[in-house]
Specification:
Length: 212
Amino acid sequence: MKRTVIVASAMVALTACAPAGYDGANSSAAEPVAVAAAEPTATVEPEASASAEAPAADAPPTDVDLTEKLVGKSVARMGKVVTDQDGWILYRFDKDTADPPSSNCVDKCAEVWPPALTDGNPDLTGLSDDKVGSVTRQDGTRQLTIAGWPVYRYIGDKKPGQWKGQAVGGTWFVVQPDGKKNLSCLPKGTPKAVAPPADSGSSDAEGSGYSY
């Protein structure tokens, strides 16, 4: 999977809750969360898309990165999290909705918080398959949802296993395998998001009008 080049990052004081690797220490091993019993896959097919003008799409464009796997884990200090196939921790956004599923993170926001896109058939470990679905974004791509909540990565995370996006803007939180916000490890204050990549034409988050 291609990764976005990070130009700037927010330095967040996470005290004792700092994720493994945040200060250069080796990451702690994570143990998978037991898979919850579930009926055969019941993929969410929301009636509402990410935008009222969103076109219907049977498959995402071929030039996007897909999240091929979702993994529910329990990691040191943070507790229950969900990662993609490469170990990047995923987040949910308070300004989105879960019923119906809808994403309100677009444009510059989506450059900083890349949506976890899917072809509709991700491998699941540690998540109940009846919790996982998708929602069509305004560009026609399909984004994974957990309990209806669209999920994202954060470009401020320097390597897999970090959670520098926790509580950014008071609206972004690590997502648990059941779709709920993980509130077990919160930073002091309210962290600001890193700026969008330089090739987006923005030099800093505030100057660009980016407020997520």
